[in-house]
Amino acid sequence: MRYSESHEWVDDTGKVGISHFAQNELGDIVYVELPPVGKKIQAGGELAVLESTKAAADVYSPVSGTVTEVNMALKEHPELINSAAEKEGWICQIQISSSGELVDLMDRETYEKRVSGK
Length: 118
Known about the structure:
alpha+beta; 4 helices; three-stranded antiparallel beta sheet
């Protein structure tokens, strides 16, 4: 997995979600506005919206590409993001248009050091 400065992750298949750290900061997720399949997105562009008991937050795409699938389970169970942010709580799948963008993202170790302040 690779992580963005704004706490999103992307795996090598193009699945995108938010980090465990981000879901913890947001609190209990109660609603997810998923992107439409077919949406073309640029890295850093708004991808989805999460609403929690604390606030609403935009989710930004860590890579450029086209949304090919969304996690429909989040419609009925948005809490999956809280319980499994980096697994079953993924938001969408993107067909990555520029794999070179992945090198600009952080690996897990770098990201975890950043959020822990160490």
